[in-house]
Structures are given as structure tokens and as C-alpha cells.
């Protein structure tokens, strides 16, 4: 660990520059050099997850790939689960904003295409498989994964609420459930088959969600 003489000026010994004593590893909003360190570490962690899966993720190897000190990684993130949690936070922050096409069909198709591109990406697809697999056995990773999808669903839910306001969907339609219905078949295809995630798969997912929503399948019941 860092000795008092090694700590940056103005920083309490044992903390990262820009962090507060007692904060949970991997939860601080960094700036400056700390932001560059975080970006390098998260990129290395994402690469390792895509290559080797959750159980192949090693903090010391992440530090080596990111070209930062091991002490920095262990002190800031603490555990593999803490690192993955921060990676998911960063991924949610970096995700593209929702499309606004002016129609429910167009908006949900744009969402389906974004999900398809992400899951079929040579790096992102294996990374998501690894994180989803890890979440089944690690509570902290599961919590981080839930937060990631909460952010993404919240980003796209307004397109459904706007469709309700335009009269395209029944009043009381659960916007979040409609957005989840678009992604669900694409994730199922990813995890249960070796069939490609192509444009047809994205179109079917969006069309099915639109048809079900118009039929009232997602109307909230008392």
C-alpha cells in the first residue's frame, strides 16, 4: 500500500487523487489523471472479459495491460466484482442516446438495431455474455447489471410514453416493459443459439413489441 510520503499532495494516504476517504471502490466520479487511469483500466478489463470471461479477469493482469500500478487498481476497485460494476456504469454512460423518429415503429426499430449491433460486435457481444454469466453467481455484478439496464430502459421509455400521447398505444401502457420486450428476443437468441443477430432479427423483435403494445399486452393492471 502507499505510504504517507507516497500520497499525492492534498490527498489523504490510501486514497486515489480526487476520491473521498471511506467511499466504496469503483464508485467515485474521477477527473484529470484519475479519469485517464480509470479509462485505461476499464478498457483493459473489458478486453479481458471479452477474451477470457469473468473468471479469467485478474486485477494484476488488468493493471499490467492498462500500464498502471497494481496498488492503484486494488485500492480503487478492490475486487473483480467492483471493477466489473464500474465497467457497467461506464458502459451505461457511454451508450448512444435514443433515436427520435416520430413514430413508435421507427423508434423501437432503432432500439432493436442498437441492441443488435451491440450484441453482435466482436468485443461487446462476448463481454455481455461474460457479464451476464457472472451476474448469475455474484450479487454485486448482478446489481450492477440491473443498474445498467435500468439506465438503458429509462433512456428509451419516453418514446413509448410519447406514442401513448399521440394515441398510437392504449393509455396505461407500461413503457419500460415495451422497451424490454424489444431487447428480450435478441438476448435470448444471443444466449441460446448460434444463429446470427441480423437485420431480420431486429425487425422481428421491434415489430412483435409494437404489435403486442398496440393490442394492450403491456397495459398496467390495478
Automatic annotation (TrEMBL):
Residues 1-33 are annotated as: Disordered. Keywords: DNA-binding, Transcription, Transcription regulation. This is TetR/AcrR family transcriptional regulator. The keyword Transmembrane helix does not apply. It comes from Streptomyces katrae. Residues 35-95 form the HTH tetR-type domain. Residues 58-77 bind DNA. Pfam families: TetR_C_11 (PF16859), TetR_N (PF00440). InterPro entries: Homeodomain-like_sf (IPR009057), HTH-type_TetR-like_transc_reg (IPR050109), HTH_TetR (IPR001647), Tet_transcr_reg_TetR-rel_C_sf (IPR036271), TetR_C (IPR011075). It comes from the Bacteria. Residues 8-27 have a biased composition (Low complexity).
Amino acid at each position: 500500500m502507499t505510504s504517507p510520503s507516497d500520497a499525492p499532495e492534498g490527498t489523504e494516504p490510501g486514497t486515489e487523487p480526487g476520491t473521498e476517504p471511506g467511499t466504496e471502490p469503483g464508485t467515485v466520479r474521477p477527473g484529470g489523471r484519475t479519469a485517464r487511469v480509470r479509462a485505461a483500466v476499464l478498457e483493459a478489463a473489458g478486453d479481458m472479459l471479452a477474451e477470457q470471461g469473468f473468471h479469467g479477469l485478474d486485477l494484476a493482469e488488468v493493471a499490467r495491460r492498462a500500464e498502471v500500478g497494481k496498488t492503484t487498481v486494488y485500492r480503487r476497485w478492490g475486487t473483480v466484482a467492483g471493477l466489473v460494476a464500474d465497467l457497467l456504469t461506464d458502459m451505461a454512460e457511454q451508450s448512444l442516446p435514443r433515436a427520435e423518429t416520430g413514430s413508435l415503429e421507427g423508434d423501437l426499430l432503432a432500439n432493436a438495431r442498437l441492441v443488435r449491433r451491440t450484441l453482435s460486435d466482436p468485443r461487446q457481444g462476448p463481454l455481455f455474455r461474460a457479464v451476464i454469466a457472472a451476474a448469475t453467481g455474484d450479487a454485486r455484478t448482478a446489481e450492477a447489471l440491473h443498474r445498467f439496464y435500468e439506465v438503458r430502459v429509462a433512456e428509451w421509455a419516453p418514446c413509448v410514453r410519447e406514442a401513448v400521447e399521440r394515441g398510437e398505444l392504449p393509455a396505461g401502457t407500461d413503457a419500460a416493459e415495451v422497451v424490454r420486450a424489444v431487447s428480450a428476443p435478441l438476448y435470448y437468441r444471443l444466449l441460446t443459439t448460434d444463429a446470427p443477430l441480423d437485420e431480420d432479427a431486429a425487425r422481428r423483435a421491434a415489430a412483435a413489441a409494437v404489435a403486442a403494445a398496440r393490442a394492450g399486452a403491456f397495459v398496467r393492471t390495478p
